[in-house]
Design goal:
Number of strands of chain A: 20
Strand content of chain A: 25-35%
Largest interface: A-B, 107 and 107 residues
Structural class of chain A: alpha+beta
Helix content of chain A: 10-25%
Oligomer: homodimer
Chain lengths: 400, 400
């Protein structure tokens, strides 16, 4: 008994000493801390720093001017130092939402060492936190059955490449023999096959909407929309090279033309219902552009189309063969009467006007669509909301 | 044409402006940069900082004293500032390996804003980089067929809980109908079901060893070894609560006792070869402890056992029923002649003595095992090496 205890205790003590730094992340502080009124307190131990700011999407936006134009950036607020060298900031009470932030200490953008929860958006890593208490708790991991999320490689004959995708299969998929409809869910420029499941909380949204009976159980396929890339940064044979926007093959038709390879792979390898009535495609920004064109190029493939803050360029005079005969192809698509053509955008989105123009085109031709306008701009908050609203409308034939 | 171009260009410009901050992460610097001689240069733009250090596992270790004892910590080296406000450090030439580091600016531990590649170890986030050119390139994503990595939830009747695991299925699994052997691969204290696939590069190691014909194609199941937890931090209904070591139910028999639930789930839901000859179990540190006890408690379940830097507490006088009759159960296990009982440890590991004692016990009883001693201590570098060596020895009946 003595020997067991001494060895066990030695191990525990060693692990605790060994892991002390690992466990605390160099910080014993609680940050962020949500207060009773849903304000949030942020803390940083930095006795040597002379100024510390916080920047985040819960602060009022600030307009930033650059030689290329101006854009709205998250606001900034100063932290105040106490005698112990701890800097602190308390936000206003916040509405339920997933928020992101970073700290700026003496001019250096840093992440909060007390908060291990971070998300990468292209090449920027920010801390996140969630204010709970919304009517839905849609972004939380709730005590409901959970789907599986898989990183899967497929071969594209059209692109002559092995490529990576994220596949969500609903709870019960592995153990059952049921067949499921499929939502193809596409990211924006600079994003990748990880964007929707991480920044977009797609896993939590689908788990929760399915568990509540609001959405049909479905497979969700999240591709990499940049045809020049195999996979997300760090996951391809480029190794740990810095992320790039890699514009050349994002919006030139390559991705759209290869898309049947994706559908073929999914229908061959998963228990899908392989017809138009059980396929949806939606995307944000560049992914909205992709969804518009893919659904138009292959009018018998998707019955449900979602354009979220879509990068709409609906003109048929590009060099790419995919964009030839735009008007005629769109006519064909709408003559086939898609079950849902859903357009959503924020009223402050820089693509607002382009979307309004596109809706005029649809109106002029009497093409049926549903329009959803939300506050705010070209941000993940909107895209999470759109997915939460779009998914429940899918694969319900009576809605037609 | 003009309209298309103007809209397209407006979108591109807007995206580039909008994404400028996201893309550069606030930094235009290249860091880390691997030089021709495999030295590495690190850079940080911080004109206002008064001192900047780097700490990483490629620097000589430093002994750190704490009231609870001393331990080896990664070394530290100062960066030097140039006139542009850029701090720089150039390492010695480094051997091929995956390394981790962080910067310390005016006393604050920060991550390198020019490097988006980070890994979380318990509650500490470090940047990583890989020095290539090793004979194997084992940790790289190479141009080989890739397996899928899935985050899957299972129900444990023994623990009365839904729990999360990571499942690697080898390339070709989805599209074929072959059945596969299974390696159960367990993490250490404070780790979780993400540890082996992230810190341990298990996906790359398996992809590469299988592609080279060194390892048999196999399923790898990476569980969460803390019976009190559902899932990794951020992935359970605890939400974004800070990670804990959560000692109470890590080494008390709960995890070991529930393990048949895991095997039952895998054999029911995946195309496994469901017999002892096609099952292996291995783990690091606490996971080595788990592997030792689980393989002993269920002597007909696993033919291949790997104890990596194992937290060995081989005494049979604990209160937990799992550890009762230790000697008799171990005798039973070895009478059944396991195909491989593999013990590996670093010569500087704080568990070295406990492992030596355990080997004496095996020797005294004439129990057959294979011993592998490596340099260094209780670190991921060793565990990646051990997995690279262990996996190729599995499921090859002729080796018996």
């Amino acid at each position: 008994m003595k020997k067991f205890l001494s060895l066990a205790m030695a191990f525990m003590v060693s692990m605790v000493v060994y892991s002390q730094q690992a466990l605390t992340g160099g910080s014993q502080l609680i940050s962020p801390e949500t207060n009773a009124d849903n304000s949030v307190t942020f803390r940083l131990f930095a006795p040597e720093a002379s100024e510390v700011f916080i920047t985040g999407d819960f602060l009022p936006v600030e307009s930033v001017s650059t030689p290329m134009g101006s854009y709205d950036a998250p606001g900034k607020a100063p932290l105040v130092k106490n005698e112990q060298g701890v800097w602190e900031f308390r936000s206003a009470p916040l509405a339920p939402e997933l928020y992101s932030y970073a700290l700026i200490a003496d001019g250096i953008r840093i992440n909060d060492p007390s908060n291990v929860y971070q998300l990468r958006d292209i090449a920027t890593i920010s801390n996140i936190f969630i204010i709970e208490g919304g009517p839905d708790g849609m972004y939380k991991v709730n005590d409901v059955p959970h789907g599986s999320v898989s990183k899967v490689w497929y071969h594209s004959p059209v692109l002559d490449a092995d490529r990576r995708m994220t596949v969500y299969t609903p709870a019960g998929y592995e153990s059952g023999d049921k067949r499921y409809p499929v939502l193809y869910l596409l990211h924006g420029m600079g994003g990748d096959e990880n964007a929707w499941s991480e920044l977009g909380r797609a896993t939590q949204i689908l788990d929760n909407q399915i568990a509540r009976g609001k959405a049909e159980p479905m497979i969700v396929v999240m591709t990499n929309g940049n045809a020049a890339m195999q996979a997300a940064p760090g996951e391809s044979r480029l190794g740990l090279a810095p992320p790039t926007m890699a514009l050349p093959k994002t919006m030139d038709g390559s991705f759209e033309t290869h898309f049947p390879d994706v559908v073929e792979f999914i229908d061959s390898n998963y228990r899908t219902i392989a017809d138009k009535q059980h396929r949806a495609i939606a995307g944000l920004s560049m992914g909205g552009f992709h969804s518009l064109h893919i659904s138009k190029e292959y009018p018998d493939m998707f019955d449900y189309i979602g354009l979220f803050s879509s990068a709409i360029l609906p003109h048929n005079d590009s060099d790419s063969p995919v964009y030839a005969d735009f008007d005629a192809k769109l006519k064909t698509q709408f003559e086939k009467n898609p079950a849902l053509y859903w357009i959503a955008i924020g009223d402050k989105d820089f693509l607002y006007e382009a979307n309004a123009e596109y809706r005029q085109l649809l109106d002029k031709n009497g093409y049926r669509y549903v329009y959803r306008e939300s506050p705010d701009g070209h941000i993940w908050k909107n895209w999470r909301i759109y997915l939460s609203e779009f998914a429940p409308q899918l694969f319900k034939p009576l809605s037609r």
